[in-house]
Design goal:
By secondary structure, the protein is an all-alpha fold. It is about 65% helix and about 0% strand. It contains 20 helices and 2 strands. Strands 1-2 form a two-stranded antiparallel sheet. The longest helix is centred in the N-terminal third of the chain and has 29 residues, at about 125-155. It is globular, with a radius of gyration of 22 Å. About 50% of the residues are buried.
């Protein structure tokens, strides 16, 4: 294991990450909210530590193997999220314990959107901005990780686009070099953020709120500047803007690249994952609308449709924005929405969950097994669009699903062991492993009441969900550390 090369890279990452403390400090200066000192101290600690890691190892530039790649990917999230907790730990308002600071930072950077803070609208503007910025940076990290890094290591949802499957991605990268891939993704991500900011501003938000909510919308994070989340604005226009950009962010960013690069939107209509995604969305919204209408939860059909649309899209894409307390909705809707977060967004998007393409392939595999029972001698293949998927891909999906389920059960049982009730433990595990945020029971609002032990378990769940399970699970194998 080339530890010195890994330390050099981490040192550079921490030093670069320290720069993200400057904008909140400037905002604190502009608004004179008294929160700037914590960010200045966090900047100094981060850049000094980064340089201490980097300088002695600056000449170690050897090529890294796959196992070093796995370790760097895991450390990327854990180390940066730990340094991201520094401002929270140093702030006088809100006064946070180390556990709460770590939880808030990991939740932001992994775009989970779970929070331990109450009275968010009363926080200094610098802190409000910083929380949103963490999600935006995490969202960009997810895209680069999913499209440019994990495929090189042989894991991740983007691997399913190999073997000449339909869609714009014929190989592991959109462009020949990872650097070029990352640069193109940055352009698309930044352009979408600017467009979302402008749309929110036109819908009635202040410029500050528009920027902050655009950060968390494009990242599919769910943090807001208000305890009531999007419900604070009580605006149909704001809800519609949120829904549109959540749909865009939940699609494979390679499709966006193909549309921009080729100036052609046909790939959206040809891509089987994209079609499956919008089919699921339509069914979910329709079910929520009809149930709300049947139980007369809202005064008009228009209001019921508005709430069904925003909540169904927000929860199913794993954003977690709220306009109402969906946990109090009638019948099976709260459980349905929590289960919809297991599907999440498309591969190569900022969404969490299992990813649509994996769920779609699991469905096709299940259908194939039923067909085999009916016609045992017939030969069936799993087809994605017009292409047959290799059995190795289907096996990989089943392996991922199995690992996901095992991690889910272990963390949920661990939470119950801390004294958490069953419903809260189930929904909290689902909300963090799927990077959703809000759950049911005592975590429907904030996670402030969760014990410290429970919070550390949920931080682990966030990491498992964000790193697509295997990237973190591989570190627990003794074989990984040999040679």
């Amino acid at each position: 294991m080339q530890y010195r090369a890994i330390i050099r890279i981490l040192g550079l990452l921490v030093a670069l990450f320290s720069v993200t403390m400057i904008p909140p400090a400037l905002i604190s200066l502009i608004y004179d909210d008294g929160g700037g000192l914590a960010f200045v101290l966090a900047f100094a600690l981060s850049i000094i530590t980064g340089l201490i890691f980097w300088y002695p190892n600056r000449r170690y530039r050897s090529d890294l193997r796959a196992k070093e790649g796995f370790l760097i990917v895991v450390l990327f999230w854990t180390v940066l999220a730990t340094f991201g907790a520094l401002p929270f730990a140093l702030l006088e308002q809100p006064e946070m314990t180390l556990t709460d600071a770590i939880f808030e930072s990991f939740s932001g950077l992994t775009t989970t959107g779970a929070t331990v803070i109450e009275g968010i609208e009363f926080l200094p503007s610098a802190v409000q901005y910083y929380r949103q910025q963490l999600q935006w940076l995490g969202g960009m990290g997810i895209i680069v990780l999913a499209v440019a890094i994990l495929p090189i290591l042989g894991v991740g949802g983007m691997q399913l686009y190999r073997a000449e499957t339909p869609g714009p991605v014929k190989d592991s990268k959109m462009t020949p070099r990872i650097a070029d891939t990352a640069k193109h993704l940055w352009y698309i991500y930044l352009s979408l953020t600017i467009a979302c900011t402008f749309a929110y501003w036109l819908a009635g938000m202040s410029l500050f709120d528009a920027i902050c909510h655009a950060f968390s919308t494009i990242a599919i994070g769910g943090f807001s500047n208000y305890d009531a989340s999007l419900g604070h604005f009580n605006s149909v226009a704001v809800n519609i803007v949120c829904v549109i950009f959540l749909w865009i962010a939940a699609l494979n960013f390679s499709l966006h690249y193909a549309a921009v690069n080729g100036r052609n939107i046909k790939n959206y209509f040809r891509d089987p994952e994209c079609k499956a995604f919008f089919t699921i969305q339509f069914v979910l919204i329709t079910v929520c609308f009809l149930v709300l209408l049947n139980y007369s939860v809202y005064d008009s059909a228009g209001m019921a449709l508005d709430q069904a649309l925003i909540q169904a899209v927000s929860i199913s894409t794993t954003a977690g924005f709220a306009t109402t307390d969906f946990s109090s909705w009638p019948a099976f809707l709260p459980i349905l929405l929590i289960f919809s977060s297991f599907i999440g967004g498309c591969a190569g998007s900022t969404g969490g969950g299992l990813k649509v393409i994996r769920v779609f392939l699991l469905f096709l595999q299940g259908k194939r097994e039923v067909d085999r029972l009916i016609h045992p001698k017939a030969v069936y293949s799993v087809k994605l669009g017009e292409r047959s998927m290799p059995d190795r891909v289907v096996e990989a999906v089943w392996g991922f699903f199995s690992a996901y389920a095992i991690v889910f059960v272990i963390i949920m049982i661990g939470l119950i062991g801390t004294g958490m009730d069953n419903i809260t433990a189930f929904s909290a595990t689902a909300a963090t492993l799927n990077n959703l945020g809000p759950g049911l029971g005592s975590v429907a609002g904030t996670y402030a009441e969760v014990s410290d032990g429970g919070k550390w378990l949920l931080v682990l769940a966030m990491l498992f969900g964000r790193l697509e399970v295997f990237s973190l699970l591989v570190l627990f194998s003794p074989t990984f550390w040999r040679s």
